[in-house]
From TrEMBL:
Region (Disordered): 23-43, 366-402
Gene3D superfamilies in the cross-refs: 3.20.20.220
Domain MTHFR SAM-binding regulatory: 402-681
TM ranges: none
Record-given protein name: Methylenetetrahydrofolate reductase
Lineage of source species: Eukaryota, Sar, Stramenopiles, Ochrophyta, Bacillariophyta
Amino acid sequence: MPRIIDKIRAVQYERIAVSSQSSSSSSSSAATNTTSEDVSSDDVQPGWHYSFEFFPPKTEAGLDNLLTRIDRMSRRLNPLFVSITWGANGSTLSRTLAIASHAQRFACVDVLLHLSCTGLTREQIAQILNMAKSSGVRNILALRGDPPHPKRAWKEGDVSGGDCDRAIDLVKLIRKLHGDYFGIGVAGHPEGHPSSLKCDDGTTTSLEMQHLKDKLDAGADFVITQFFYDVDIFLEYVKRCRGIGIKCPIIPGIMPIQSYSSLLKMTSFCNISVPSSVLDRLERVRLDDEAVKKIGCEIAAEMCRRILAETSSTSSSAVDYSIGDDCSVHGFHFYTLNLERSTTRILASLGALDIDSPTSAGAALQENDTDATIGSETNDQDQIVTRRERKESISEKARSTKRVLPWKPSTMDNRSKEDVRPINWSNRPKSYVMRTDDWDEFPNGRWGDSTSPAFGELSDLSHFYSFTLGCDDDRRAMLGHCPLNESDVYEVFARYVEGTVPHIPWCETPLQPESFLIQPQLAKLNRCGLLTVNSQPPVDGAPSNHPTFGWGGKGGRVYQRGYFECFVSPDKTNRLTSMVTKHPSMIMYAVNNAGQELRVGVEEGGVTALTWGVFPNREILQPTIFDPDAFLVWAEEAFSLWSTMWLSLYDFGSESYELIEKMKDTYYLVAIIDNDYYTNDGFLLLDALLEVGGKCS
């Protein structure tokens, strides 16, 4: 996939295009009766980006929570990239690479891998780069790293203890070994490196500025700065960079304020100045961490708005970084400290989440929700069952117009042309990616022969396989401490649909926006024993930029067949069979854990397109399909989840154990497709299911 520098340039071109369009339409604004209510003055203009930094936790519990958090933030907030830090002298090598690989492969977000050269030989650096490349990582933040003498800071003349003494040597080595394959970022220090001298005004010395330019001349592509709180110092830093010929993107680092004491500690350690105006606002509430966080978010949002406003390019043409002297800043890098709440609030305040009101955004969290440090032994409080996930799924509807496909495309190079997937893994995409990871090529344009590619086995030892639902105690809290009858299990599925249970084994994410539209009906069906794991309503030619159903960009029309997938008892399977028989437009596939199949209304044939789109100057796209053979592969996995994720919570021979085992061994997994997507009678399949459900109550 594109290097970060290429993505940054694309965002800048978008910003310039938006600015040009706004300028050309400004003369007609009076004629269209635009009022101040139409555009929020707090929202910044489109065409800017943001990214997040995470660090490797020290514990397995912390690692599980962090992987979940990266998945969620990547899905909900859609950052341009995430960066993963590097421990002193490579102490976190294995964890850093594992997190980077997971984010790139399974969270489908581009990764900027920190790499410090301190203490590393050329051979070790080459090996690390090859490991990063094999994981799909295409971006490196080249750093010198922590000092070789841990009890004192870097001093002039110190060397790294490895084959690369400075970050510039690391940049040169990366370019020598891999050419332009990797995008390379380097660090910038608006107030000077902590170990270097500052100018009288507290800014970076000319010598340090020249060192930065040398790193860029050696092959680096962009700069990410140390965090700061004095915007004037940062703006002056950008001007000085441009003045000495540094023309690359400069991304300001933003660290949300978590507490008054941590602010003083961090700024003192890093030699960062804090304006009196900032301290005065925080001083009054310094003993109230929640109030400090709230004001800290306001301060960060104000900083971002000012930087974007005061560095906006006045040029109406695209800027070529290789020849321009543009001082614009087009994005921000958030030092999250592995936390989510403050960063989300800031982005919501800036209008980046496309929400109608603060209360519907993930940033507007319930005030009694606390945010715990991921690196601790305790489970992070944001993982506890709340209604917030349901609110966040609403806000996702407004962002769906930016979707390239109905599902999130991979960021791996070998999957760059993949544009067709079976619907069955829609709610377990990481499983699908892993099981198809060894394919030589991926479906492009059409699904093709389903018997050709073999699905890999899903190992119980795969790290991502179980982390989503947390430890056993977390799973019991969600799935039930002691279910005694089938209605107890039905209630878990219904509560997932309603948003009070954040996950179930078959669904790693909250309810999809399009399913949220029929949430009450789905909850009713689950309480009647139709245990849903996948569904989509019919769509007949919705605009491709529709806020809920749209994908593929503007100018097209999208369609989808109604689809419903659920676990049901043998008795209800018979009732569904009768229902499908009465509706010629419907077909049904069913299979139980023993492999006994049942097909109703199915003619000889195979793959059915469930989602397709019609766009100008393009062939018809069919990104989501149903394949009977793939369904059987998925069914085997789906039934195994009853055992590995639910049955295993209870003692052998207990009532709860026997209940889950009985349901696993007797229930059918049923998939129903309604080919009538064009009637005006609504969701015919849903209406028919509700009729069946009514008989179950």
